[in-house]
Amino acid sequence: MQSIRVDTPSAKYDVIAGSGLIPTLAPRIQRVTGRLPRRVFVLTAPAIWALWSNTFLQSFAEPPTTLFLAPGEKHKTMPSVERLLRQMVAAGGDRGSLLIAFGGGIVGDVGGFVAAIFMRGIRYVQVPTTFLAQVDSSVGGKTGVNLPEGKNLVGSFHHPLAVFADIDVLGTLPDRELRAGLMESVKAGIIRDRALVRFMEEQADEVLGRDQKALEKVIVASIRMKAGVVNRDERENGLRMILNLGHTVGHAIEQATRYKALLHGEAVGWGMIAALFLALRRGTITRGQAERLESLIHLYGPLPPLKLRAPKLVAATGADKKNVSGVRRFVLPIGIGDAGVVEDVTPSELESAVTYMLTHAREQRTK
Amino acid sequence: MQSIRVDTPSAKYDVIAGSGLIPTLAPRIQRVTGRLPRRVFVLTAPAIWALWSNTFLQSFAEPPTTLFLAPGEKHKTMPSVERLLRQMVAAGGDRGSLLIAFGGGIVGDVGGFVAAIFMRGIRYVQVPTTFLAQVDSSVGGKTGVNLPEGKNLVGSFHHPLAVFADIDVLGTLPDRELRAGLMESVKAGIIRDRALVRFMEEQADEVLGRDQKALEKVIVASIRMKAGVVNRDERENGLRMILNLGHTVGHAIEQATRYKALLHGEAVGWGMIAALFLALRRGTITRGQAERLESLIHLYGPLPPLKLRAPKLVAATGADKKNVSGVRRFVLPIGIGDAGVVEDVTPSELESAVTYMLTHAREQRTK
Fold first, then answer.
1. Is A325 within 8 Å of B149 when comparing Cβ atoms?
2. Which end of chain B is more exposed for a tag (fewer CB within 10 A), N or C?
3. Model's pTM, two decimal places?
């Protein structure tokens, strides 16, 4: 078990990663909050709760009030948020209440947002149950939901009191979800951690085989990278932007496929391949580095094929939330273990990169 | 013109109160923001815009994108918020955009909340157009909307960049709204400012006759009181609670009458009468003080009659947002110019106070 400290101007808390956390949650939370409040809520997904409720409830003297969110991006909406808020009022929730978000990234984002705005903000704890949520979405205080116009267009910065990433839950995670989640670890390595890149190259069999030690190592390194970046730039004014490597094109792919065909990590995987192409063109990485990193991405694939057209994807990147006043921001790797943001990527440059990526994405189909 | 500083751990900004602010808004905002962003939104109400759009637009080189909110608490909802957020995305809003909330308290609360959660928070400016919004809701960073279960149950703390309270708009304010708004100034005097109480007693004719100097004096004193309290307790953990004098019973009245029969200030006026009764019973004010303050409240009336039953009102106070873990919090005046929070008001004590208030509220009908 390891503890990683998040320390920003607005919040300080620990991310605990390891085995056996879920059956011992209540005392762990109490170590942070003192006595548990009168009303504790747990927001979860039906499938998670079916598998884990007995283990989860083990350490609670009084069972928390359960709130459910149906799976899928299509439920990550404002109407879902209002329904949950109303259920909390009806169940006697007040400003002292605590919410536990127990599920994947969507449960974490919605749960954090509900906690951020219920009676102008209550405390919450993240208990992420997917690899992706453990290494990425549960750390950093970003919460929110989608609008019909795009993903995560509404939200708040609201940090949890603590994050408990129990690797035991990963045993039941579908293989495709694990691989998609590992794309964020690949990203973590590329932008900030050469050693993680090497480890993921050398120990791919162990990691994909869910060897406890290997998984914990990748999770802890990924969280440590993200916490380090968030500690230095809580509100995404500068450095934090590099966490978006692969995300500009990745979001465009998700939008063009209506968030149905690909998992988030898979879209980011393709997006990183486009970013590597751009970085190579601009000389921020060498051909050898580009090939090595592209192989690493495919090692944790396969990424699903894409049937999209380049101009459509390029147009979709214009709506990215990272853009301010019409400037298109793009994260490019610098060697292995560093990255930077550029603002002068032209549409034609982007189109070449997307075309390169789509060519590979079509070859992928014939494998 | 006067400037009052709000200075909290999370934000520092000025509240400017005086004449001639609306026709000179753009340069005033630029003094705070630097160059205006590419996309500026103004959220307003149709009736306000019909009267003031020409004056408002005078100083803008490019007219802001107008967003409308229909009047009334029934539009202060999550679905309204989602509609506005979607309109902002459609109009090309981004993280650098600025929103101006130009209207009464509802426009300010909704506008502030929309700004708080659009792309995880954008900057905004308050330009309150009612007396109540100028002295109360536009200062302090509280934003939010209602749920069907109750008022302001959802929201954020999100401070504006600046507040411009132009007293010229008060000329077109209906008399009843002015009188209701003045209840918050009466409250300000009771809890923190003896001199304001005396001024409002002695200059009632001037204030109600909308004499510019008298109005500005009351507005500035009220804002100064609120800013002083917010500066010392931004998140309502302690002192800020005293701003809720009259609000526990006031909210219960609003809820019992479904926010239709009374203006907020009127409900607070009745709520203060109940609080004075309780304070007298507990000896935190003398009979002479209670009578003096009750007269002051009626001087700025008339408060509308109430046809409610005491037990129903007492029950409704149980749902108050200020309550934590079942403890009913109540603000009581201490003499004139001070107040405190008590947590041990029994239901029967509260019922006597509410009964006293309702007796007066019935007499009121026969006047």
1. no
2. C
3. 0.89
